[in-house]
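Continuing from the previous page of notes. For each protein in this section, the sequence appears first, followed by its structure tokens. Read the first protein now.
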Amino acid sequence: MSRRKQDVVSLLKTIERGGEGALQFVNPDRYIQHNLAIGEGVSGLAAALAQLPPGSARVNTVRVFEDGDYVFAHTDYDFFGPKIGFDIFRYEDGRIVEHWDNLQETPKGPNPGGHTMLDGPTEPADLDKTEENKALIRRQIEDIIAGRLDRLPGYFDGDAYIQHNPLLADGLSGLGAGLKALAEKGVRVKYDRLHLVLGEGNFVLAVSEGIFGEAPSAYYDLYRIENGKIAEHWDVIEAIPPKEEQKNGNGKF
């Protein structure tokens, strides 16, 4: 594991100690916060962590990847209740200067395919194919945004597709059936804009903006690619709070 990956795992673990030791990883003069429930800078982060009852938080980072100046992590949290989260950190001059994240309440029990939001492979492979795999996911998300849904089957190897979304079953057929069921309940799943694509080897994270139900939402989708096709998918969907409830002015993205 690279030094930056180790630092991110260690930084997230400091949440269990109320943030004690976090400042060694962060540039306190240039830290930009995109979690809209937390105030600006390191003072905002410290204030948020101070609200945790001592000894109440638990953090287990399951996956961590690096792409240039970015490190992104997939973590099992328990603070003010169990949550699954993706965190993205941007580095400058060896220290973290910017943070984005997406959090979702942990569901009770597995999804229709028997999977949790976190299980499955954790180590990247095919490191020489990072850019190729990022381009694949970028095209897929852009096709979704443009409504070119007839192209989607081409991104998958038939029905051999493992799904970790808590509402959906495995396979392209499970994805289609699940989205149809949501639509019948009046739940919109709409992607409007792709903001960021990061990857390491056969793992690619796409950060998008759209609508889930009636709420403006952030979509963080993690894909595992195998032989040029999407083989596995994890995600976290979080509603974006209205502007008057946001605690910093940096925006979700």
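Done with the first. The second protein uses the same format. Note its length before scrolling.
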Amino acid sequence: MTTLQIAGARMHSESAGSGEPVLLLHGGFCSLESLQAQFDALARDHEVFAYERPGHGRSPDVDGEYGYARSLIEAVAYLDAHDLESVHVVGYSDGAVLALLLAMDHPERVRSVVAISANLDPSAFTDSAAGLPVLAPLPSPAGAADEPDAEREAYARFSPDGPAHADVVLAKLMRLWTTEPDIAPGDLARIGAPTLIMSADRDTIRPDHSLLIASSIPGAQLCIVPGTTHALVAERPALLTVLIGDFLDEVTASRA
């Protein structure tokens, strides 16, 4: 574990394993713990690099609003800081949006993309659908209402800004999620790297939107994970690690 000064921000960074490099990008209001299962599984066959964006996990917040353009600058600077010419990119939620942008705008830096629960714009969210069909919610497990908010609990444990700053981060994230990203489906055709689009069958991202993303990227694959929500990385970690691992093995074999 190290702390790096990246693009004017102090960010927590971790790496492990050996083999072809993988950049792991977490979701909004998440720490790297949220992707621990994927990190550990990928590190068995790859060299995994991951960092926490400003205001997330152990990285202190920065002044001003969040934006995907700013996060993209940080991602490229992070690759440069580790002398990584190109990587496989696995991103979840906000990290998945960032993975798509990285592959679009810096194709030479990306060997493959796994984008989990990405969206192109705010209209993708289930509750903004106008007459489009979605699956009924799954029954809540007994006692679920009494479970603490895992990410808020993690924020309270890790953030150098203190537990009360969580509300500041969430307010900035809500402004981000309701105004960005703004990616035209046609622009996804610029992605030339092998791509796997994943989402949950009961995601906050509508299934038709995930299909739109996959169908807009030449040769992309689509996987809808059954019986899961936007928290699919925590709900079905073993299944996701198998799917991601098989995809990366397939990409590596095709390049051999």
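What the second structure shows: The first strand starts at residue 2 and ends at 6. The chain has one domain: 2-255. We return to this in next week's lecture.
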